[in-house]
Amino acid sequence: MDKVDPLDAAFFSKRSDEKKTRKKAPVGRRQFAEAVREAQEGEAAAGDYDRSGRRRRSLEELLDEVHSSGDHLLEAQSLEAIKGYRSAVRGFLDLVLARMLAMEERSSGAGVVRRKRFTQIRVIDQKLERLVADLLADQHRQLDLLGRVNEIRGLLVDLLT
To answer: Angle 114-116-119 (CA atoms, 0-180°, nearest 5)?
Structure first.
């Protein structure tokens, strides 16, 4: 009687021959600089759109929109002009504050009872801060008008509740 080979060496030798003849895909190593460049290109392509898919506008476009909608608000005090001015100011301030300020939170000590939380806000870009101050000075009349409209709206809400 013949011996039964539990490992069946003939089967394994065929399989190893198949592995040798099969082409392997070349393993490419990307250089670190290439990976950084690709990431920057991806950010640049995605940087033109916000999370909701709308196109981001530049600081100059938003500033021009604030000025034009502010002039329109002074000419015609309508509800559409107020809403347009409010959205223009909101968009401008959102962009500026996102670029201008950074907040860090730190906790002191290891004890749970006496632990204090410190919040530090750093101004990143002084030029943006000056631009916002100049804008607020230029748009003072429009912002006062908008404040009065919001105050009246608040009084109406108080009357209704």
So the answer is: 175
**Distances from the Cα of 107 to the Cα of 50, 84, 87, 114, angstroms:** 32, 42, 37, 10
d(Cα 144, Cα 73) in Å, to the nearest integer?
11
- Partners of 122 in beta bridges: 102
Beta-bridge partners for 117: 107
Q: Tell me how crowded residue 95 is: count the other CB atoms within 10 A of its CB.
A: 19
Rounded to two decimals, what is the model's pTM? 0.45
Tell me the pLDDT tens digit for each residue of 100-136: 777 788 887 777 777 788 887 777 777 777 888 888 8
Dist. CA 72–CA 21, nearest whole Å:
76
Q: Tokens representing 5?
A: 């080979």
DSSP 55: B
